[in-house]
Design goal:
Elements (H helix, E strand, L loop, with lengths): L5 H12 L17 H5 L13 H4 L10 E8 L6 E3 L2 E16 L3 E17 L20 E19 L2 E15 L14 E14 H4 L6 E12 L3 E2 L12 E9 L3 H5 L3 E9 L5 E10 L3 E10 L7 E10 L3 E8 L6 E9 L1
Length: about 350
């Protein structure tokens, strides 16, 4: 449960509903997907080797041997959050699938939805005055909700024994529902948007080039390399430009014989995300006998404007067919839990 101050409450409501809050649209893609990756602090660009690679790095889809489906669900710890006398709950869902076709390449598809319902809508001013921080909240005009939906389609191909390439086309749509027109805030009604973008990913396996670098991978994901910009349904909302973002990372699996002999693996990862000037991800994962895994990670904002966020996770794999992943992320506002299930055919 979270308690926010009255001024922050006002800011949240206005930001979610106002046309100028365009930076909130593509943020749905910043949540991350997959309990395994999130348990490693989101450090997955060079390690992505399952169907969630459609999101993290489409080049990783080449690691899928046949066909697999993954489903991710957010835990209930983030819903509802108490805002005054109102309960505001978020709903998160992600599903992905991937398959490899001989001589053709690897295909991936994913659907992601994030929504918030029951947001109280209140006037920005009462009798022409902004309410003070100690004043009781003004009467609600009503409640509204927001929703963002993303569809990702990916293709990947091994172009060299050491190099995999991948491309993801993503379509986003979303907006508000139930929003009441309010002259005090300048809100004229509900808002919606749509967006189309392309990501280009590459993974380089240095161990294929030289045994001295066995276990070392480099991953790069050029997000929004080409895009349409965010298009709004109202002339009062300017189109939002979306710059290209180059996420890069390294993954290193220790090439020790005793690990291989026990069907075990220990991997260290790090990613750099320049979009947030600069966000660094760190992760570590150990698999024991291809059955049980433990992992930990951290997100570090080098600007110092936000606290570091730690994460932990575990996995259980049954006969290399069913894999259940769990992650706990200590976000700055509130901890969140994720559970994923992955089925391989």
């Amino acid at each position: 449960m979270i308690r926010r101050s009255v001024p922050l409450f006002f800011a949240l409501m206005v930001a979610a509903a106002s046309a100028w809050a365009v930076n909130y649209t593509n943020d749905v893609l910043e949540i991350g997907v997959g309990a395994r990756a999130l348990g490693m602090g989101g450090s997955y660009v060079a390690l992505a080797d399952d169907s969630t690679a459609t999101y993290w790095n489409p080049a990783g889809l080449t690691s899928i041997k046949h066909m697999e489906v993954a489903i991710v669900q957010q835990g209930t710890e983030n819903a509802p959050a108490a805002l005054g006398t109102n309960d505001v709950g978020s709903q998160y869902f992600f599903m992905s699938g991937g398959m490899t076709l001989p001589k053709i390449g690897s295909l991936g598809v994913a659907v992601m939805r994030f929504g918030v319902d029951g947001i109280p809508q209140i006037p920005a001013t009462v009798n022409g005055q902004v309410p003070c921080s100690t004043c009781p909240p003004p009467n609600q005009i009503g409640t509204f909700g927001t929703q963002d939906v993303a569809v990702l389609l990916s293709y990947a191909k091994t172009v060299h024994p050491a190099v995999d390439l991948g491309l993801t086309a993503k379509i986003l749509t979303g907006g508000t529902s139930g929003l009441v027109a309010d002259a005090t805030t300048g809100i004229t009604g509900n808002y919606s948007y749509n967006y189309f973008g392309l990501d280009l990913g590459v993974i380089v396996k240095f161990g294929v080039l030289t045994s001295a670098l066995e276990g070392l991978n480099l991953g790069v994901n050029l997000q929004d390399l080409a895009n349409s910009g965010v298009k709004w349904n109202t002339s009062t909302s300017p189109d939002e430009s979306v710059p290209m973002n180059a996420k890069s990372g390294l993954a290193y699996s220790l090439p020790f014989d005793f690990l291989k002999d026990n069907h075990s693996k220990f991997t260290l990862t790090t990613d750099i995300d320049p979009k947030y000037s600069t966000l660094v991800h760190y992760g570590a994962e150990i698999w024991y006998k291809d059955t049980l895994a433990f992992r930990a990670g951290m997100r570090q904002f080098t600007s110092g404007q936000q606290a570091n966020e730690a994460s932990f996770g575990a996995s259980f794999r049954l006969f290399s067919i069913i894999q259940v992943d769990y992650a706990y992320i200590d976000y700055e506002l509130t901890p969140i839990q994720y559970i994923s299930m992955l089925v391989r055919f």
